[in-house]
Amino acid sequence: MKELQLKYGCNPNQKPSRIFMEGDRELPIQVLCGKPGYINFLDAFNGWQLVRELKKATGLPAATSFKHVSPAGAAVGLPMSDVLKKIYWVDDMGELSPLACAYARARGADRMSSFGDFIALSDVCDVDTARLIKREVSDGVIAPGYEPEALELLKAKKKGNYNVIQIDPDYVPDPIEHKQVFGVVFEQGRNELEINPELLSNVVTENKEIPDFAVRDLMISLITLKYTQSNSVCYVKDGQAIGIGAGQQSRVHCTRLAGQKADNWFLRQAPQVLNLKFVDGIKRADRDNAIDVYIGEEYMDVLADGAWESIFKEKPPVFTREEKRAWLDQMKDVALGSDAFFPFGDNIERAHKSGVAYIAEPGGSVRDDQVIQTCNKYGMAMAFTGIRLFHH
């Protein structure tokens, strides 16, 4: 198959629409179920590249949750604590495979953004992963293969209309890529830069110690950024992205946005949130939305009389700003990657508030000394990679 007709492009008015291969090559995918659209394929192909690189870099199964051509979450298949299982709503599923753990982490880090995601898996989709996907609101999945029972589970999703794509894991694209904007063709070499530990060897801070777990997490952050719309920064802890700031014009706004997401991830693990008692039958999305509001500044939207009764069995106490800050002060050993240099130390100040201890960024700013000085103030270890990872 050399081409696939699509219903429409980015928007319903953009017709005709198709994906196709030039020359004699065939498309490297098969659609096993559903009718993926233009944006679905953009998410699928970017997501597949991300998880393929995560698997190569770490040796672990990887998953990502994509929305609007940027990852909402990305993770490798490490075991989860009981607390993580609970906040990701998988504590009722028993022991999960490494691939399922990777997707639970990728989906669970930012459940608000992952709602209606497109999933990419580095390995053949197993039954555990399919069971997890089946109960989430999602547009589709791409993987190098599917176990027969897993495929049947996915085909039953959305009344048989769930998008299931199989990609040839041996497919290698041409080294030169093209795209067209306003009738003008752009050409560039593909970004084939390998993210590896050598990129983290130039540690420019007083603290030179970057332990193995932080090297892994920094590589995860950089690989994630490689497929995130720029400007972008990515906070990572324990093998998973916990906050991704994408597509902001100002880098400090990326750092703040991603930092707030990382904070929310950690606040969801606080006893005040774990002990919330929801009414029976509440939908998963409504539960996620209520938690997001409860830990935010607009908490009275769910705690006001006449509002809380439809969400909680009993009215929760206010999670005060002081209590939240005290809890966040316990977050440690977070890794932070940036797709371009930090121009000011204010980015480091914000990162410190979210427990960042390890940083990877290209370097090259005229204010590198200010950024390094701010890192030294907090005892952070920062590596200059010398490489930029813009993605548009």
Features:
15 strands, Cytidine Deaminase, domain 2, Helix Hairpins, 14 helices, five-stranded mixed β-sheet, alpha/beta, 3 domains, globular, six-stranded mixed β-sheet, 392 residues
Which regions contain 5 or more consecutive residues with pLDDT less than 50? none
The CATH topology of the largest domain comes to: Cytidine Deaminase, domain 2
Provide mean pLDDT, rounded.
96
* Portion of residues within helices: 25-40%
Could you describe the largest sheet, including whether it forms a barrel?
6 strands, mixed
Q: SS-based structural class?
A: alpha/beta
**Based on DSSP secondary structure assignment, what is the total number of beta strands?**
15
Structural domains: how many: 3
The H-level CATH homologous superfamily of the largest domain, spelled out, is AICAR transformylase, duplication domain
Q: What is the string of SSEs from the N terminus onward?
A: EEEHEEHHHEHEHEEEHEEHHHHHEHEHE
